[in-house]
Specification:
By secondary structure, this protein is mainly α. It has two domains: 170 residues, Rossmann fold (3-Layer(aba) Sandwich); 354 residues, no CATH class. The protein is built from 25 helices and seven strands. Helix 12 runs antiparallel to helix 19 and helix 17 packs antiparallel against helix 23. The radius of gyration is 27 Å and the shape is elongated.
């Protein structure tokens, strides 16, 4: 059986192109297996007969930059110019025979939507798999070039000779015209802020109804269990520990679904990359790396894969600095904490307060990078900017649903593991040794909180708030369950004020996200930088929170 790797496809679900090629091979009874891979490193150590690199016809230069990295792992490759109908639709054209001659790799054009070029593609793959590797073309020598700019110049020269552009803008599609407005240097940033405001407004407004239903359901279930179960430590564990802690986190599931629905639409349409492009222009002027924005954007979902995504940055100094900047991005684990406090204390300005937290994280990451750029560890010249964007297109509902399910599954997994165990531990520390939840002052939990509270008292935090920050170390969602157990689900009457609430959210934003993030940074950048991130984030969180609280008290 021939094994053919397919690379260059989106990561969400199995590609329609792979399905079409596999179906065509099965229909003609050809013994071929198509395997999707998403990074050139995944080719290492696998015995593929040939690699099919899918090149996006609307992102030719960026797509062809991947070719030398593929050749490093597998020398027999075929290029498939995908979605070629989109290129022709705007009156652009590509000289395929000349491109094949100049780059030295067999090339075909395909379109799944029009069912075009698929049999020819399979035939070329079989022919290449059966012949020896040819190293007569320049691309096989350029693969050894350490300077990526050399190969970029080579690709640019090839496209200059083979790609014919439309003569004027009248051939632009409606989406391309919208794209010009979204990336406009003057309009792009205000539009981005308006989009983010709309997303957060929908998250709170639309999510309020199902959130209220879940909270009422948890309350009714708790009352029913209190009626059925005999008062004991076991019933207290179930009702006051597990149900209270899990229910507090579960109530924010509708908001998570709505937020990630919009995020998925922005990612799939290509608008998320345009946000990176808009911010990149400004960031590059102050000496930061253009390619750092993709990991930083991923950090809004989860810091762990975002740190891992920084591997693609070639310069080691920029790679480590980007990893240190990622934790400033508000990951989805912090979102339930924000929603709880914003919904309780800032009901009239929910979206604005949420945007301010995200903006503070971004601004502080910029300041942090500027400071670090002037140290001996990171001092260097600025690198190139991000100058090529993925095609702007209509998002697909199927991809949005798959993305939402992935996030919901991760959220529920945390509830069923970390949150349940955190709730049980907090309840036990609160219940013993007095075995009376009304006597918190003499519990083990109070002893822990009172031990650390002197360090956090200047921020306006009592011992209960200090304990919540400690329980957030394994996962930030655990803070919400701890608050529900300690305050009975009503933080509005628990000593919090709008000032202390905002200060608390700032501390949650700035101290390191979770233990998993620390371990990932340790693996990717080394133990020294992992410990550096722990200490600098705690120090920065304390200083910023102290300033905000003390200045707020004066005002």
């Amino acid at each position: 059986m021939q094994k053919i790797a397919v690379i260059g496809l989106p990561r969400s679900g199995k590609s329609s192109l792979t399905k079409a090629l596999q179906g065509l091979a099965n229909q003609s009874k050809q013994d071929i297996q198509f395997v999707e891979v998403h990074h050139s490193d995944e080719l290492h150590g696998h015995a593929f007969d040939v690699v099919l690199q899918v090149v996006d016809s609307t992102r030719l230069e960026e797509s062809l930059m991947l070719t030398p990295h593929i050749i490093d792992e597998q020398e027999k490759i075929v290029l498939a110019i995908g979605r070629y109908d989109l290129l022709e639709k705007t009156d652009h054209s590509l000289d395929i025979p000349k491109l094949e001659q100049l780059i030295g790799v067999p090339t075909c054009r395909v379109s799944v939507r029009l069912n075009y070029g698929l049999p020819e593609c399979v035939a070329i793959l079989q022919e290449v798999a059966s012949r020896p590797v040819s190293k007569a073309h320049p691309i096989y020598h350029l693969r050894d070039q350490e300077d990526e700019d050399t190969y970029r110049a080579y690709v640019h020269g090839i496209l200059t000779e083979t790609l014919t552009h439309a003569k004027d803008d009248k051939y632009q599609t409606r989406l391309e015209q919208i794209d010009k407005v979204l990336t406009n240097p003057w309009l792009g940033f205000p539009i981005m802020m308006a989009v983010l405001y709309f997303v957060f407004w929908c998250t709170f407004t639309l999510g309020a109804y199902p959130q209220e239903w879940i909270e009422k359901g948890i309350e009714l279930l708790s009352e029913r269990m209190s009626e059925l179960l005999t008062p004991s430590w076991w019933s207290s564990l179930l009702i006051d520990g597990v149900l209270a802690g899990v229910g507090a986190v579960l109530a924010f599931l509708p908001n998570i679904i709505i937020l990630f629905f919009f995020i998925s639409l922005m990612e799939d349409s290509g608008y998320m990359a345009r946000e990176a492009y808009i911010m990149d222009t400004t960031m590059h002027r102050i000496g930061l790396h253009g390619r750092s924005f993709i990991p930083m954007l991923m950090g809004f979902g989860c810091n762990v894969p975002a740190i891992m995504a920084a591997r693609d940055i070639q310069n080691p100094k920029d790679r480590v600095l980007t990893m240190l900047m990622v934790p400033f991005m508000s990951c989805s684990a912090r979102l339930p904490v924000y929603m709880l406090f914003v919904d309780t204390f800032f009901a009239r300005h929910k979206a604005l307060v949420m945007i301010s937290l995200y903006a503070i994280g971004i601004c502080l990451s910029v300041v942090f990078a500027l400071v670090m750029k002037r140290t001996k560890w990171f001092r260097q010249e600025a690198d190139d900017t991000v100058n090529e964007l993925p095609v702007f297109k209509l998002p697909k509902l199927r991809i949005a649903i798959a993305h939402i399910w992935e996030k919901v599954a991760d959220y529920l997994q945390k509830i069923c593991t970390v949150i349940i165990w955190a709730s049980i531990i907090i309840w036990a520390l609160e219940y013993f040794p007095t075995q009376d939840l009304n006597d918190l002052e003499h519990s083990y939990l109070a002893s822990i909180g009172q031990f650390v509270s002197p360090a956090l008292a200047p921020l306006g935090f009592d011992w209960k708030m200090s304990v919540c920050l400690i329980t957030g170390l394994p996962a930030k969602e655990a803070i919400v369950s701890t608050l529900a157990i300690l305050y009975g689900g009503d933080i509005s009457a628990a000593g919090f004020t709008p000032l202390t609430a905002f200060t608390f959210m700032l501390f949650v934003l700035l101290y390191f996200p979770c233990v998993a993030t620390i371990m990932t940074l340790r693996r990717e950048a080394g133990r020294r930088w992992a410990w550096f991130m722990v200490f600098h984030s705690l120090l920065l969180a304390w200083l910023i929170s102290f300033l905000v609280y003390q200045i707020g008290c004066l005002l």
